[in-house]
Amino acid sequence: MNADSRDLSKLVSGTTAAQPIYFDSSGAKLFGWLHQPLDGQISNLGLVICKPFGYEAMCSHTSLRVFADAAAELGVPALRFDYCGTGDSSDTDPQSNQLDVWAQDVSAAVAELQRRCGVERVCLLGVRLGGLLASLAASQSKSVASLILIAPVISGRRYIRELRMTQLAAQMGKASVGAAATNDPMTLAPGTSEFSGYTLSAATLVNLAQIDFAALPAPACELLIIDADNHPASRGWAEALAAQHSRIKYLTLPGLVGMLITAPQFAQVPHEMVAAMNDWLRQSLSHQNPRPHPIRPRSPDSESAVAENIQLLPGVDQTSDGILTERPVFFATDAVLFGIITEPRAGELRRRAVILLNPGADCHIGANRMHVSLARRWARRGYIVLRMDLAGLGDSGKRPGQPDNEVFSPSALDDVRAAIEFIHSRYGVGDITLGGLCSGAYHSLRAAVAGLQVHRILLVNPENYFWQDGMSLGDLQLADVVRNPSLYRMRVRSAAAWMRLFSGNVNVWRVMKVFINRLSLAVESVLRDLARRVRIHLPRDLGSELENLAARGVRVVFIFARGEPGMDLLKLQAGSTVKRLRDHCSVHVIDNSDHTFTRSDKRAALETILSNELFSRNRWGPRSNRDTAPAVLQMDGEPPDSDHDASNSNAGLYRDRS
Q1: Residue pLDDT, tens place only, 415-449
Q2: Alpha carbon separation from 105 to 25, 81, 108, 137, 145 (Å, rounded)
Q3: In this structure, which topology does domain 11-155+218-296 adopt according to CATH?
Q4: Model pTM?
Q5: What CA–CA distance (Å, rounded) separates 396 from 394?
Q6: Residues of the chain with CATH 3.40.50.1820
């Protein structure tokens, strides 16, 4: 890998390059990506991208990267970044007014783009809540020349209502498959609300409810408003602004749903909106200096120039010898891979590491920013933690010919191997743990089965254990076969379901395939268990794979939210193997959670189980009483992790506690 001739300090795409950076904002460190043309010739105009909030930010990650690259191709340097307390940036006070903090972050991003690239004028592109933040920052900055607002939040009160309605709909959907529909924010600060796993503080909600842009004067700068063509919520506001001055342009374009509220593995780039941004930037360039000039950054002091590409985090005791370091890293296969690595305090003697893989097509921060929380928590206990993007996902490069957002890429094994080699060569670590949620769990299992040098795998809510070439996420999966029979049996008692059947809106053949495949899977499970007992080795046998991992000393940890199909699939495909391997394999169940642990208390329980499994340096011993949960084992004389109560989780095969 050291012989790789590519520049592994940036990500090159076509005629542009993106460089990961840290910069300051009111004492915090923000993480961002600076996109520039490869030839170094830039205009006098820059672009700062203000992302939306929460789940919308995760869904739109790839699209915002495309917006930034498109601007850079025009010679307009672009900066996309994470607000404080989001993404890879510093954590924030959970009771702070996030609107004020994030608006200051936008202003800091404007100043940083000017410092690095020497641009005099900046355009702010804001999406949803990012549009509101861009507007607030523009009112306080003379450097902002124009605004591009995509489906902006105009009424804070209406936006809060939309968030709550979306959460209520999600809870109703979870209740239908056995998860609780109530929200128990036991780990949240008073007055804080959680929306799809992302929080807004009480102060933020109060401030947000008071904002109504429709009652305020028009912004002083030029303004492009892009609305959804199927739900133009900003039309009235745009018409009122146009009556005040003529520097307003309003468009309705398709693509908003595909960008913002479609799961990342299915999300689509709104190319019409990207083209509209390009036209707006070209028009802005024609009004200013049309000729590009070489980058002429303002000279920073030498100390900040040296330290700008790392983030220092407090250790356990907040002292200088407890400081953690976080930095962006690149390593390569036939694609350039990106990750953020969190390093323990200087002088840490124990050489242990964890590699966290993408859940689905979510970027390296993980669902609900879980990977960031885990990485910083575990680094404080002496672990080196890499949260990485597989090729074609998040911020990693894409293999030639690879489709967008390929979650179960057959080449992912090469990416995991490259990450392990990177950890080995850079840090000399021998004890490596792999982990992930959903597809991240799948790739962790496949890497261990393939013989990669790992000591432990942490598998959270895997939905399948084998993937065949040619399959797609739209195909009928074994997880559907396991999950859907119970749903269909519930719907037999639903009048609405029968009406859909008689109206021809139900795919009867798909329902039949589910039951046929379920019966086939049950028969196959019995036959495979018999074959294992008489030492007949069958292909694609999960039980045999787990036995081989145990023989190599690899510990396997399964963690499921109750009702997850992956747990029943484990029973069917591994049979009685897990019972026999209880010294090397454990199964935990967390009640009343969903697939991605969007509730903070369930996330806390998950993090505790993961931490206790990681910190335990011994194997689980046999238990005489199967109704007793195992004690938490200690690591190297350290006390067990006890940040949260995991009383609603259980260890041991398929054993639940109500």
Answers
A1: 999 999 999 999 999 899 999 999 999 999 999 99
A2: 6, 9, 5, 9, 18
A3: Rossmann fold (3.40.50)
A4: 0.86
A5: 6
A6: 11-155+218-296, 311-460
